[in-house]
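Bench notes, afternoon.
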Amino acid sequence: MKNTEKIEQIKQTVLKGVKSKGKDVQLDNWLNFLEKELKFPFEASIQDSENFELKWKDIIKVKKIEDFADMYGVLLEIRKGRQKYIFPLCDLEVVEKQSKNRFVIDAFLEWWAEK
């Protein structure tokens, strides 16, 4: 199965049975799915950052889902060395290219960009 097919399959699984096209209703399913399916901790690289301590391509450890904010989407607790940060999922990329986490996050980010 191709990567795009895996991502599409995940999106269909998450939204199966959701009759509403409303982002809020669909988002609840996504948040529950992310909580259940992501395996923590995992490594990711910074893709964008407004924080001067976190630079593009820095490798960090993602510890857990922390919160949700309308402007940024899913917020994660990450660590770089001994420092802890709250950072948006949309500005990270999973390091392990063929991991389940990578496909789950890519599917979520594709859905998030469409809404």
